[in-house]
Amino acid sequence: MLTPRKRSRPTTFFAFLFFACLLLGGMASAAPSITLSKKSGPPTSKILVSGRGFEPNVGVDIFFDTKDKALVVTNGEGEFRDAEIFAPRGARPGEHWVTALERNNDKGDQEPFLVRTNWSEFHFDADGTRLNPYEDVLNRRTVESIGLKWSYQTGDVVYSSPAVVNGVVYIGSEDFNVYALDARTGSKLWSYKTGGSVASAPAVANGVVYVGSGTSGLYAINARTGAVLWIYNGVGFSSPAVANGVVYIGGGYTDHNVYALDAHTGAKLWNYATGDIVLSSPAVVNGVVYVGSHDHNVYALNARTGAKLWSYTTGGGADLSPTVAYGVVYVGSEDGNMYALNASSGARLWNYTTPGAGSLIPAVANGVVYFGSADDKLYALNASTGSKLWSYTTGFLVYSSPAVANGVVYVGSSDGKLYAFDARTGALLWTYTTGQSDYGIQSSPTVADGNVYVGAFDGKVYAFGLERANSAKPVLLPDPKTLHPDFKLKASKPV
Question: Around Cβ 198, how many Cβ atoms within 10 Å?
């Protein structure tokens, strides 16, 4: 007669064999899987693809949609890591697919990649030039066919300029609210009532909306829910810039400072005192903060410490926001001049005088500086020399700052119209009249995902785009059997 101990041994042994077979069988039949280093981004985005569950030491082709972009060889465990591909320059906004297939069979995996051409803050991004370099839907030929897609009525004038991130439009209003609107339909996702008017353009970074509200403060708001995360009191007239986990903003009418705040907590990192109020919105480029002050000076400050690197004195209040490109700072002044300053030294390279007081915030693209002025004109100057290339006279003051995308310049005018011009020749391509003819558009337009967004004096937020773009078919999930490897690709080494 077997003791209980002796009887348990064969039972335990057979149980072990049973579960081992299940485990080995599962490992043998495990399907390949891939992961992407990012789920969304603009055209030209670098995407690192990693995979596991493939056969050992085999070639794996990696496709973006139907184009074979890379060949990698798996290691002895059937894995590869950080295979590098790029989203094509011409990839349209919307869902696309990354596919990894073992060469000469259909064994593999597919993951979606969402193409977005976000406009995340006033300058496009922290070191931007109000140029969206990724736009590939609207151009000189197609822009004449755009029409109104939707408008959203707020409770008061909209001076704020929109930010557009991941399919959401963020914008402020003089009704004290910050709004999050569905970029496709215009429906309100949420709104948050601040303690003052919101003329500041929001900046969106890492799931947080940063926006100023007059003297009530700078607000950090959860971009998805609209819940306030923190408030830094007393600043809020200028539009914030966010770079490397830091928010930079002018003190507005409350004091004479430029501030650097921790983007996560709102804690002050440093402040720099100028000689007067700071309404200018900072630009942050290569570790330097460029900002103007009503004391007539343009300042370059160390972004980490706030130490002054240089300053340049203009002939009037430098309340307008600088734009930095090609190693040059372009900034307008109340004296009617557009100045070009060496970004490293602050030395004046040239200036261009307009008849109207206050040359406004420029956009810079392809060697051209575009800006509006109080003489009712939009100007285009050679960025190197300051010589005028062309100008266009609108019906009233041009306080809106231009946006440039894919060869087209968009700008609003106080005559109530939004204009689109050929960036090279200045030819008028398209115009739309809003509901207010006096002081009509002082908001600056943004261009994202094939659409143009702007606020207006009539209290509305407008969205314009191509009608046929609404009905464009999304990229379908490719059938692996239809994907053909590129036999000219050289295999990258396994990581």
Answer: 31
Decide: 290 and 310 in contact? Cβ < 8 Å.
no
Tens-digit pLDDT profile for residues 86-129: 999 999 999 999 999 999 888 999 999 999 999 999 999 988 89
Sheet with 94-102, strands from edge to edge, namely 40-41, 108-115, 94-102, 59-64, 67-73, 491-492
Structure-block tokens of residue 166:
């991941």
pLDDT in tens, 22-55: 444 444 457 999 999 999 999 999 999 999 999 9
What order of strands is seen across the sheet that includes strand 46-52? 33-36, 46-52, 80-86
Tens-place pLDDT, residues 142-189? 999 999 999 999 999 999 999 999 999 999 999 999 999 999 999 999
Side-chain half-sphere CA neighbours of 177 within 13 A? 18
- CA geometry: angle at 223 spanning 217 and 226, to 5°? 70
Q: Which pair of tokens denotes residue 363?
A: 């956009």
Alpha-carbon gap, residue 111 to 16, rounded angstroms: 37
Q: Which domains does the chain have, with CATH numbers?
A: 31-116+473-492 (2.60.40.1930), 143-458 (2.130.10.10)
